[in-house]
Write a structure and sequence with these properties.
mainly beta, 745 residues, three-stranded antiparallel β-sheet
């Protein structure tokens, strides 16, 4: 191989030179090892003399290998020298790399650095020579922000509003309001009013006109014009226009007031009003807006004496209240597509015969109030949802109310509708009527309520009412008052789960000429129950009550003959039931009464057998003016926490209180057949009075040690026996009118 064939680049020559240097270093290290002193190995454990390492090398043939290695190294050195010498001249070092250039970059400044925009300029060395400023190469960063824009001051706009009679204008007038249009909407808003001037005596007039297509509205629209009525003709003339506010397109974002037929014509193409629409106090005979679909505020049509017809055929929703009031000639409503309102108020529209023009209405988000409409004959709405209340009041020709709801209704008020005959209100599953009041409807004959739950119910002062049917699934959550109606039949129909009774969580009052009362399942009243002044002939658990948790009051029922099998958890009052012969009550606690016991003025009452098992009464006992009653208590009675009064019970014989140990006070007066008073167990009483008992001949109080005792006008009771009882008692004692001649053993 020739030297010419071994010529290569400078870089190659450089590498060969490096290799030569390495080989020379290896040879030098070897020579140093040869000249170093010889070392001996440690003495073997067998005691023989150590052998020098060099001798071991020679013995192992190491010398031969060493000579071969040196020969190879020499050959390498010679070859390298030859290769290196092939070049004509010595190798030149590579040129140094070019220095990096300075490069720059620009990015948009952030809003935090420059609120009104700007640029970030960065510069640095292009270390990787790619011609761009890469991350890590930047050395300087400069932020250049734009100056804030020059904002011209807002335009001053003017608004005219009516000024009522008052401090500013004694006869009324116009308030001229002005201020900067800060939000740029072209109108003066309430929060932009900076100055107000008053033009007294000059009323504000306005009008609505069509805005033709042009520079202000490309597709046309509506213009609202305002000015002062300087000529006092009640109309806005062309030369009186002071403010014009255009609204482009078919949607208005403002409150709108219609005063004239021309205003209504100008609004003919409007489809949406994002605000309220008012038509009040006008001379219009007809209001027709054929294309209006939605009003996002309220629709008020009121005090238009000549208005006969309202036609809004495309209207679907009024988000706030729809109010029709004091339009005395209004006879026709045509809103067939209206299905949702915030509230519905129909008040004092004397000529309106019905609400058939609202045939599509099914949602009232808040309330429906229909009142004082002289010609209205029916309220039959397909309404399914009323959010707050239904009030129907003082509609003198209204004959029927019917509605079927899908959701619960918090309040129902049906009041003073003179010719109303039927009320039919129902809900679907899981809905309720929370508070129902129906009163003062002179001809009302039938009420039907149907719901899963019913709340408080008050049906009062409906003199012709003959039938009330309440159908419910679960319970009545509140008080029920049926009072001062006609000779009605009351029926409660429920669905019984696991055989449970229908429950009233509050109290029940039946008062007035109720002729029949039927509940299936039986009725459980958690609170008090009052049956007063009815025409009922029987109260029992088979047709009415499963029980009463509070006090049962049965008063002034002239036809009531029997009370049997009633569960009772509180007190009992039975008063002035002229036909009642039997008193039967099955107490929830068989031997205790958790309240007062009052049995008064029941002339036919003979027995009170259910009281015979009582052992304790937690209140007062007043048994009076029951001339046929022969017995009250049994031998089990031991404690009366209150007072015991027996008065004017002509047939009451032996009291039968042998185990009575405690009573707060005891009075037996004018009971002519009580022959003896044996209170052998009585140990605690604050006072006793025995007066006017014609046949009372015996008194025993052996365990009583302290009590005030008065014994008067008992002609057969020996006075000496009374004095003997006094002797064993502490307290105040008085006696007179007893048998002073009788002898005591």
């Amino acid at each position: 191989m020739s030297c010419h064939e071994h010529r290569t680049t400078d870089a190659y020559v450089g590498r060969v030179g490096d290799l030569c240097v390495q080989v020379s270093r290896l040879i030098g290290e070897h020579l140093e090892r040869r000249s170093a002193p010889r070392r001996t190995t440690p003495r073997p454990i067998d005691g023989t003399a150590p052998v020098p390492q060099d001798a071991r090398r020679h013995a192992d043939g190491g010398g031969e290998r060493e000579r071969e290695m040196l020969a190879k190294l020499n050959a390498w050195m010679i070859g390298l020298a030859c290769v290196a010498g092939c070049g004509d001249t010595a190798a030149e070092p590579p040129p140094p790399p070019a220095p990096p250039e300075v490069v720059t970059g620009m990015t948009a400044a952030s809003a935090a650095e420059c609120p009104f925009g700007g640029t970030v300029v960065s510069s640095g060395l292009d270390v990787n020579h790619n011609g761009a400023l890469d991350p890590g190469e930047g050395q300087t960063r400069t932020v250049l922000c734009s100056d804030p824009p020059v904002v011209p001051p807002p335009q001053v706009v003017v608004r005219l509003v009516s000024e009522p009679v008052g401090d500013h204008c004694t006869l009324g007038g116009t308030a001229v309001q002005s201020g900067p249009d800060r939000n740029g909407n072209g109108r003066l808003d309430d929060d932009e009013v900076a100055q107000v001037e008053y033009a007294c005596g000059e009323a504000l007039v306005r009008r609505i006109i069509a805005e033709p297509p042009g520079a202000r509205c490309i597709a046309g629209g509506v213009a609202f014009q305002f000015g002062r009525d300087r000529d006092r003709d009640g109309e806005l003339g062309d030369d009186e226009v002071e403010v014009t506010e255009p609204e482009c397109g078919t949607e208005l974002v403002r409150d709108v007031t219609v005063q004239t037929a021309a205003d209504a014509v100008a609004l003919a193409g409007i489809t949406l009003i994002d605000g309220s629409l008012r038509v009040t106090g006008t001379g219009l005979s007809e209001l027709s807006l054929a294309n209006l679909v939605q009003i996002r505020g309220a629709l008020t049509i009121a005090n238009n004496d000549a208005l006969v017809r309202v036609a809004l055929p495309a209207l679907q929703a009024v988000d706030d209240a729809l109010s029709l009031a004091h339009d005395r000639a209004l006879a026709s409503l045509e809103l067939p597509g209206l299905h949702r309102v915030g509230s519905l108020i129909v008040d004092q529209d004397a000529a309106l015969p019905d609400l058939a023009g609202l045939s599509g209405l099914n949602v009232a988000a808040h309330e429906i109030q229909i009142s004082d409409n002289a010609a209205l004959t029916s309220v039959d709405l397909p309404i399914t949802t009323i959010g707050d209340a239904l009030t129907v009041a003082r509609n003198p020709r209204l004959a029927r109310i019917a509605s079927s709801l899908r959701q619960s209704l918090p309040r129902v008020r049906v009041v003073a509708n003179d010719r109303l005959e039927r009320v039919d209100l129902s809900t679907v599953e899981f809905a309720a009527f929370d508070d129902v009041a129906i009163s003062g409807n002179a001809l009302l004959d039938h009420i039907a309520l149907s719901a899963d739950n019913l709340g408080a119910i008050a049906i009062e002062d409906n003199p012709s009412l003959s039938n009330v049917v309440a159908t419910l699934t679960l319970q009545i959550r509140g008080d029920v008052v049926i009072r001062n109606n006609g000779p009605l039949s009351l029926t409660l129909v429920g669905s019984s789960f696991f055989g449970l009774p229908t429950e009233i969580t509050g109290s029940l009052t039946l008062s007035g000429p109720v002729e029949t009362f039927f509940s299936s399942p039986r009725l459980l009243v958690d609170g008090d129950c009052t049956i007063d002044g009815t025409q009922l002939s029987v109260l029992d658990s088979q047709s009415s009550f499963a029980g009463v948790g509070g006090t049962l009051r049965v008063t002034h029922n002239p036809q009531l003959a029997t009370m049997t099998r009633l569960g009772l958890g509180g007190g009992l009052e039975v008063r002035d039931n002229t036909a009642l012969t039997e008193l039967g009550v099955l107490f929830q606690d068989q031997d205790e009464l958790e309240g007062d016991l009052i049995v008064v003025d029941n002339p036919a009452l003979r027995t009170a057998a259910s009281l015979a098992g009582l052992a304790r009464i937690h209140g007062d006992v007043h048994i009076a003016s029951n001339p046929a009653l022969t017995g009250v208590f049994g031998a089990a009675l031991s404690t009366i926490d209150g007072d015991l009064t027996l008065d004017h019970d002509a047939s009451l014989g032996a009291l039968g209180l042998p185990r009575l140990t405690r009573v707060r006070s005891l009075a037996v007066t004018d009971c002519p057949r009580v022959t003896g008073l044996d209170l052998s167990a009585l140990a605690t009483a604050s006072s006793l009075e025995l007066r006017g008992n014609a046949t009372l001949g015996h008194l025993q109080l052996p365990r009583l040690r302290q009590a005030d005792l008065g014994v008067f006008d008992n002609p057969r009771l020996p006075a000496c026996e009374v004095i003997a009882v006094f002797a064993g008692l502490l307290g105040e004692h008085h006696q007179s009118g007893n048998d002073d001649l009788a002898e005591c053993k």
